[in-house]
Amino acid sequence: MDQAARITDKIVPIILQHGSFKNRNKGRTEITICEVTPKEKEDHYMSNVFFINVLLKFEADSPERYYMVIKLPQEDPYIRQFLDTEVLFHNETLIYTQMIPLMEEFLKKRVSFSIQSIFPECYYARSDSAPDEDVVVLGDMKPEGFRTTEMKVFLDYDHCVLALRALGRLHAVSYGMKNLEGSAFHTIISKLRVQKFANSSEADIDLFFKKTTLRAVEYFARGKGVDQTVVKKLKDKFSKCSELLVQLLTPKEPLTVMCHGDFCRNNMMFRYDDCGKPCEVKFFDLQVVKYASPCIDLSLFAYLNMSSELREQHWDDLFKEYHTSVINNLAEILGCPVDNVTENYSLEKFQKDFSDHAVYGFLHSSFFLPFIMADAKKHVNLEEIFIGSLGEIADRGVELGEEDATIKVAVILKDLVNRGAI
Q1: Rounded distance, CA 381 to CA 283, Å?
Q2: Quick one: 271 exposed, middle or buried, by C-beta within 10 A (0-12, 13-18, 19+)?
Q3: Is the peptide bond before 73 cis (omega within 30 degrees of 0)?
Q4: Higher-confidence residue: 61 or 55?
Q5: Which is it for strands 290-292 and 257-259: parallel, antiparallel or unpaired?
Q6: pLDDT band at 41 (very low <50, low <70, confident <90, very high)
Q7: Mean pLDDT in the chain?
Q8: Which of 151, 10, 135, 118 shows the shortest CA–CA distance to 69?
Q9: Higher pLDDT, residue 56 or 350
């Protein structure tokens, strides 16, 4: 049975049995219409995504139409194993079914805002059964007026500030829960699993990043006034990225939070006002959530979704917007003045934490930024890129995006060097 047919014949009836429609389906419910439309791959490749339009007739109520998004594992067993989709669906199911409800209940006692407001509604999620039966069913946000941005690589200031304020709210909830309900929070965090991409070894990871970072290091080395001892240090540092990533992802209290983990443009949807300005944002794709420095999210966003011009002109302001959101929301959660939380969560501590972790964003940008730039111009065949060993994937990746991508990744490297972040 193909996945579209399975959605109609099996998954939608299971959702009904699960009781995902605010108790409206306690009586007999009939599926009057169920239309399934596959989503184009675009820049999402970890899952197969389908949009469904379901008209339900309830026994004791009037019919109602529901728009949902269903995520299923890739059908090819090789790709599922390569992407470690069992871990991805385990994590996403855990966050939607346990962590977000826990956060929502935690906030109800203390504040007026809802953490659910920055995520789509989850109707149903299941994992850890058979690998090809994992499923996540979310509300389709398009009928609510949300859409992905038309900007396919870099975002403008308005989109960035909106996203960072919402991220600050999410991170503030982590801090609040750690302070007031740490046991329940950490019980769920401890269940997160780490994706083992391509079943890779430490040697595979070292080779991958050694190749992807080299184009930036060599371009940087050709710049005027570049000390060659710095270049050698960079090459040495990026030759052991498996160790570096472990260091970057090791929790260091008190700033560690539940990170989105893939905080990028393609995992956000925006709603716009009548003037076309973004006024609300929602995050999705929670498959690689991590318990780590907040700057894992911040560095990835800064280097993958901001142009060098935007970072140069506005990064300090944007960082302050994020930090202000953190401390204001945390103070509201804790029920105390803002001044009471700034000692442990000062701007200076976050800035130092960013310098300590900013290289994380560079490492991922060294491969994904050229990939995104190439895909924005001409759709890249994923089956051709993501096949073989990590070394072979890196070899294909360094050919993507051409000289323009090399320059942009090198500019990120220069920014890290100037910040003293390497």
Answers
A1: 26
A2: middle
A3: no
A4: 55
A5: antiparallel
A6: low
A7: 90
A8: 135
A9: 350
Tell the residue number behind the tokens 């060993």, with chain if given: 389
Asked if residues 131 and 73 have their Cβ atoms less than 8 Å apart, the reply is yes
Residue 376: its pLDDT value, please? 67
Task: Look up residue 261 and give its two tokens.
Answer: 């983990």
Q: What is the pTM of this model?
A: 0.93
Is the separation of the CB atoms in 380 and 389 below 8 Å?
A: no
Match 């498996």 to its residue by tokens: 242
Give, rounded to a whole angstrom, the gap between the first and last alpha carbons of the chain.
51
Contacts of 375 by beta carbon, 8 Å cutoff, 6+ apart: 42, 43, 152
Query: Cα separation of 184 and 138, whole Å?
Result: 25
The answer to whether 284 and 267 are in contact (CB under 8 A) is yes
Instruction: Measure the CA angle with vertex 227, ends 225 and 229; round to 5°.
Output: 170
Report, as an integer, the average pLDDT of 14-36.
69
Task: Tell me how far apart the alpha carbons of residues 4 and 262 are, in angstroms, rounded to a whole number.
Answer: 27
Mean pLDDT of 297-310: 97
- The span from the CA of 265 to the CA of 261, in Å, is 13
Residue 383, pLDDT > 70, answer no
